[in-house]
Amino acid sequence: MPYLPEDKPWYHAITIDLILRVLSHTFLNPIFACLAPLTMRAQNFHYEDPAMQVCMAYAVTLNLFWIAKQFNTRLAWGTKRSFDWSEEVVVITGGSSGLGLLMSQIYDMRGVTVAVLDKVPPEGEGRGVAWYKCDVGNKEEVYKVAQRVKEECGDPTILINNAAVAYGGSILDVPDEQVEDTMRSNVLGHFWTIKAFLPAMLKNNKGTIVTVSSVASVIAPAKTTAYSASKAAVRQLHDALAAELRGTDIKTLLVLPGQMSTPLFKGVKTPSAFFAPVLEAVDVAREVVGLVDAGRSGEWAGPAYVGWINWYTILPGAIKRLARSLSGADGGMETFVGRSGKKDE
């Protein structure tokens, strides 16, 4: 469900995502579309009747789109990998709070072994969650902790690179130390964890690597220079990694969320509650875990506008500028509070 602060009116819960979700389960559902001509036929409508022909064309079109989507999924993302949750070991970076914490809790409820890499202990305790104090931007720490994880938990089969930091301010206002911290945590952390855990996945020929990027990797709002650059970097890292792992049974998932209800971007104002609603972190956690469960490579983008954002990149410059101005995206960071130094997505 859309994120709705207590001080917001009820209609703020009505978003474009909610409308599209309702349509996908009704008028844009292939099964629903097939029922329409069958119902009309039961009422003695003839096939030559214009209304009947419209309904049949509607049903055929939706089902062809559905079939094309299945083919695309199979060809683009390959076959599914099998899971034995009693043997799976999940590593989540930045798993002590926010999105990472929620994902670790979901896996913990299933009885899956989870290793959390974070600088601070998780909020709450999980019977199957092991916390390892680690700054993922520090190569030596990551490699040492990775060895401990393998010895104490077993070879990781699922790696979720979720850790991130964010600092607000223009490029001249952000201290050099914060820029370096952003790149170490948000970019180099992905390199070090992948290099630490991928060899065992390749040896066992099974695994899943999840890259949590951001809509800011495509459209970078003002005063997010370091953060947006880091998220664009890990998106390209993901694409290159997916190409390198093609032909293996290692699956790669790219997650592109918009603004979430986590402390990382506390205070940021969404441009539009209707077109760009704030995501509940628990909903994103469910989506990510569901994609991992599906056993395929893939991408997830949410809310709906994030899935359309790539079209923005091919627009003429003048239209891009107008779109940014109308959206108000560049003013969102004016009220940024955040939680500096915390690895949280």
UniProtKB/TrEMBL annotation:
Q: What is the scientific name of the source organism?
A: Ascobolus immersus RN42
Protein name from the UniProt record: NAD(P)-binding protein
* Listed Pfam families: adh_short
**Could you tell me the keywords of this UniProt record?**
NADP, Oxidoreductase
InterPro entries tied to this protein: NAD(P)-bd_dom_sf, Sc_DH/Rdtase_CS, SDR_fam
Q: Which family does it belong to?
A: Belongs to the short-chain dehydrogenases/reductases (SDR) family.
**Source lineage:** Eukaryota, Fungi, Dikarya, Ascomycota, Pezizomycotina
Question: GO terms for molecular function, please?
Answer: oxidoreductase activity, acting on the CH-OH group of donors, NAD or NADP as acceptor
